[in-house]
Design a protein that fits this description.
Blueprint lengths: L1 E3 L2 E5 L1 E2 L3 E3 L4 E3 L2 E4 L9 E4 L2 E5 L15 H16 L4 E10 L4 H12 L4 E6 L2 E14 L15 E7 L4 E7 L2 E2 L5 E4 L3 H16 L5 H10 L6 H24 L7 E6 L3 H7 L7 E3 L5 H21 L1
Parallel strand pairs: 2-9, 9-11, 12-16, 16-17
Antiparallel strand pairs: 1-2, 3-4, 4-5, 6-8, 7-8, 7-10, 10-11, 12-13, 13-14, 13-15
Helix pairs in contact: 3-5
Length: 310
């Protein structure tokens, strides 16, 4: 969260697996109720309905404005950031992003979606909020995460932002993005690995495995399970990571002449399951780096707009 004059800039990364702000990360799950549910710890109350946050799994949607779930999750993200500062009424500028190759085509629609109502009253975790959404800034996903690194980048670099739903790739020269034609988005996020593990595990053991175990192994490289079960997950994860590097090479990545920067949850998989040298690979481990970058880019743009107006 950043203060800009009398407004507050709040960066939000609308991921398919998790919603991130500069200081928070929570699951992209939401379940609606017409009456107050039994458990209300993470409950949003908006427009006469009740929403439990973190419940269920949000299906992959190439366009995030196809339902209102991401709008409700946006309100929750704003509430979390405001609560940290003990603020309950605010004039808010949302700084958000979209997958690299989809930004141009979806930018205006997503901006309208997030600002569909300027004055919004809601409650989260039994606390009331009244906010005014004065503006929405949309930026290319991933690039914001490496913003602090760009002044030190020399030669050719590649960014791989591996999220839960998509994998975004961007090529850079001396830290500056190359042409838009060298930005790519593929539906090859971590959830694709999860689906592959489920299928392989069922085929080889005739049993089902809980996603909690899969997530633990993908995140930490191991779990308290049998060696044979761990081997199935490990082998499948190695195949998925091989697929990441195959796609990178197909788009022009050369490990000998380019440096690779990896951000997003998929970085854990590369660390644990890549069979090869990671000498020229850098990992951006801060899961909130993208949202912090959105806020920085929004502040830069607001200051530039102000200077031009003078």
């Amino acid at each position: 969260m950043k203060q800009f004059k009398d407004k507050i800039i709040i960066g939000i990364d609308h991921g398919y697996g998790n919603i991130k702000t500069a200081n928070h990360c929570f699951k992209t799950g939401i379940t609606a109720y017409d009456t107050e549910p039994l458990f209300t710890k993470d409950m949003l109350v908006y427009d006469g309905k009740y929403y439990l946050i973190g419940e269920g799994h949000k299906e992959f949607l190439p366009e995030k404005d196809l339902d209102n779930d991401y709008y409700y999750l946006t309100l929750v993200a704003i509430a979390m950031e405001l609560k940290d500062a003990d603020i309950y009424e605010a004039d808010v500028i949302i700084a958000a992003g979209l997958p690299l190759a989809w930004t141009r085509g979806q930018k205006e629609k997503f901006k309208e979606y997030l600002s569909q109502k300027q004055d919004v009253a809601f409650a989260f975790r039994d606390v009331d909020y009244n906010i005014h959404i004065s503006d929405v800034k949309i930026f290319p996903q991933g690039y914001s995460a490496i913003l602090p690194y760009t002044p030190r980048m020399k030669g050719l670099s590649v960014l791989a932002d591996i999220g839960n739903g998509t994998m975004n790739m961007m090529f850079l020269e001396n830290g500056r993005p190359k042409a838009e034609s060298k930005m790519y988005t593929e539906k090859f996020g971590v959830y694709q690995c999860t689906l592959a593990v489920r299928a392989a595990f069922s085929k080889l053991t005739q049993r089902e495995i809980d996603d909690f175990i899969i997530d633990e192994v993908l995140r930490d490289g191991t779990a308290d399970i049998s060696e044979s079960d761990l081997r199935i997950i490990t082998t499948t994860a190695q195949e998925y990571v091989d697929g990441i590097f195959r796609r990178l090479r197909e788009h022009g990545y050369d490990s000998e002449t380019m440096r690779l920067y990896i951000c997003g949850g998929g970085g854990c998989l590369v660390k644990h399951f890549y069979i090869g040298s990671l000498e020229r690979v850098s990992f951006i481990d801060d899961i909130c780096a993208t949202t912090k970058g959105y806020e920085a880019l929004a502040e830069i743009k607001l200051k530039a707009d102000e200077a031009r107006a003078k």
